[in-house]
């Protein structure tokens, strides 16, 4: 049996964003360590070109032709690759799976597919291969997506019209706890001011919800009992949802694997500052550019706070247009701005006292792992759901209501100097314990072991 399993390969298909590729690499590495299998991560060529500089023990990388060109050290934007994911790459992946020894790793046992890369699910079906789903965020955000067909059945939304009041609290829909105080407009598929964009977002998420119904297992990069009753989602009959987030978070084998080249001078700069004094600012690798006036507000607020700050801000006109003239020279020494930051190493540095974040789920978990309080400024996608949990349920961050310089300055002072900040630190420390050595970690390990046992028995 062991010899047979040794010839098996699991193909991992992530969505082409750094916040999706990294947790899937961690999952691949953990499964290799736990079973006699090999792992191959299939990524679009524009990701593979950058992954070539890295290696993950026991994990191979293959490139899927996409027909999309990247922009040097910047990832391509969604419009340029979303069409490719549905209309170009499926045939490329199918050819790879059907070719004899196409993976160079032996017989394909199954595919683990990021649900945002749901285009690969029908490909696997055509090839007669089983599929395991992977959701790289909170289970709560998956619930909001899985609920779309039900909301359509109730007549609240349709593929061409939204009959709901976007300011309406979603508590009466029994999707997520009322304490979150979430509105319709905070749901991932409604975050846009453009009706055309909203319709395309809804179509994207509806497609994911419908394709995911066929899966027997979905592994979730979430925390067991993440808050309230969010983990009581009732999946379709025959489907199991297994939260394994703490296990992925505590895997260090891939922490140095970043898709885009990071600026390692950040750590030397942090070494020059006192414990808990630095504000780290990052809005992620995937979020769309913010308007120049918002960047300007953050710039002035950070300067007015009087605290040293390290700001990961993409070196692109679409992001940096809002920086005041001569700003980087003016704040030199007290402020440092880089294009890509080694985030995990930054968050664990003792000089960091607060993190201004877009509320991407991976970023939130990394901050908790290293005991860093947060100021929450959600931008799009699942950020608003994550933010509601972080602020109203888990109490590990405070909400930044706007990018006005006075609001930025006020939030920094509340976290660094006030009683509110001390409470946040207590709650972060409590959550840190449960996801590193506590109950959540134990449940996650059991879920992963259960999945491995069932996969081997098939």
UniProtKB/TrEMBL annotation:
MF GO annotations: UDP-glucosyltransferase activity
Signal peptide: none
Gene3D superfamilies membership: Glycogen Phosphorylase B
EC code(s) of this entry: 2.4.1.-
Keywords annotated in UniProt: Glycosyltransferase, Transferase
Keyword Glycosyltransferase: yes
Recorded coiled-coil stretches: none
Family: Belongs to the UDP-glycosyltransferase family.
Stated name of the protein: Glycosyltransferase
Organism: Setaria italica
Gene: LOC101755634
């Amino acid at each position: 049996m062991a010899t047979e399993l040794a010839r098996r390969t699991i193909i991992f298909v992530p969505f082409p964003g750094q916040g999706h590729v990294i947790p899937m690499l961690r999952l691949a590495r953990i499964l290799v360590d736990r079973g006699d299998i090999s792992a191959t991560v299939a990524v679009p060529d524009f990701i593979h070109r950058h992954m070539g500089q890295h290696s993950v023990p026991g994990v191979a990388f293959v490139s899927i032709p996409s027909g999309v060109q990247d922009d040097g050290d910047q990832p391509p934007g969604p419009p340029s690759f979303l069409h490719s994911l549905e209309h170009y790459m499926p045939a490329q992946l199918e050819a790879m799976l059907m070719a004899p020894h196409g993976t160079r790793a032996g017989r394909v046992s199954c595919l683990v597919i990021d649900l945002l890369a749901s285009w690969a699910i029908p490909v696997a079906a055509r090839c007669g291969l089983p599929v395991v789903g992977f959701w790289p965020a909170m289970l709560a955000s998956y619930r909001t997506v899985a609920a779309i067909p039900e909301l359509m059945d109730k007549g609240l939304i349709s593929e061409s019209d939204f009959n709901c009041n976007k300011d309406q609290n979603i508590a009466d829909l029994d999707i997520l706890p009322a304490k979150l105080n979430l509105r319709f407009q905070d749901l991932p598929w409604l975050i846009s001011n453009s009706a055309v964009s909203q319709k395309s977002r809804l179509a994207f998420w509806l497609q994911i919800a419908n394709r995911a119904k066929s899966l027997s297992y979905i592994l979730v990069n979430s925390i067991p009992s993440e808050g309230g009753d969010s983990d009581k989602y009732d999946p379709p009959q025959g489907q199991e949802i297994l939260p394994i987030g703490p296990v992925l978070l505590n895997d260090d084998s891939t922490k140095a694997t970043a898709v885009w080249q990071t600026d390692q001078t950040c750590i030397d700069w942090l070494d020059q500052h006192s414990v808990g004094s630095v504000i780290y600012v990052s809005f992620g690798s995937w979020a769309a550019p913010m308007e120049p006036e918002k960047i300007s507000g953050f710039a002035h607020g950070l300067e007015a706070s009087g605290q040293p700050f390290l700001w990961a801000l993409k070196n692109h006109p679409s992001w940096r247009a809002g920086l005041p003239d001569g700003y980087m020279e003016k704040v030199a020494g007290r402020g440092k701005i880089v294009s890509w930051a080694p985030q995990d190493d930054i968050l664990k540095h003792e000089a960091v006292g607060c993190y201004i974040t877009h509320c991407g789920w991976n970023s939130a978990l990394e901050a908790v792992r290293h005991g860093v309080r947060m100021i929450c400024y959600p931008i799009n996608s699942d950020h608003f759901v994550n933010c509601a949990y972080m602020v109203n349920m888990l109490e590990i961050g405070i909400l930044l209501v706007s990018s006005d310089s006075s609001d930025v300055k006020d939030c920094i002072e509340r976290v660094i100097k006030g009683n509110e900040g001390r409470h946040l630190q207590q709650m972060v420390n409590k959550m840190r314990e449960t996801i590193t050595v506590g109950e959540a970690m134990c449940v996650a390990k059991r879920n992963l072991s259960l999945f491995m046992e069932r996969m081997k028995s098939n």
